[in-house]
Amino acid sequence: MNALNFLASRDFQQYEIGIIQCKTNWNDNAQIPMLWDMIYSAGGFRGRNITIGKNGYSIQNIHQFTYSFVTVPSNQNQIYSSNQVAVKRVTNLSGGNYWGQPTEQHVAKSIKEIFTNNFNNGTSGIRNGIRNAIPEFNPNKVLSYFDII
User: Fold this and answer.
1) Of 25, 60, 109, 141, which has the fewest Cβ atoms less than 10 A away?
2) What is the DSSP string of 71-98?
3) CA–CA separation, 104 vs 82, rounded Å?
4) CA nearest neighbour of 19 among 1, 35, 5
5) pTM above threshold 0.90
C-alpha cells in the first residue's frame, strides 16, 4: 500500500481515468450518465458541500477523465435517431456513447471504438504487442505476458 500511495502522489497528474456505465435499456437510463458527466466535469459545487476528490486528489488534476455510456440496447424494434431525447442526452458525454452495433453517425459508436477513443495511451502498447504476437501464435505453446510485449 505504501508503494501505491507513493506512485499515486508522484504520478497523479499522468493518470487517465474512465468510467464506463453499462445499461441494457437506453431509453430509461440515458439521463443518469448525462448528469454524472456534468457533475464530474464541474468538479463539485461550492456551498453545497459536494466535491469530487479527497485529500487533495481531484479528477481536475489528472491528465484525462472520461465518462462513457454503453448499451446493447434491449428495447425491442426501437429505431434510434439523432433527434431522440435518449440519444441527445448521451451525445456530448466526455467519453462518448457506444452500443453493441456498428457505428451510426450522430447516434452511437460501436463498442469496438471505446478503447481507442478513451484509453489509447494505456492500451496502445498492449494492442500492438498482441497484434505482433498473433502471427507467431502456436496453439501448442503457452505465451506469457512477456512473450507478447
Assistant:
1) 141
2) E----TT----TTSHHHHHHHT-TTEEE
3) 9
4) 35
5) no
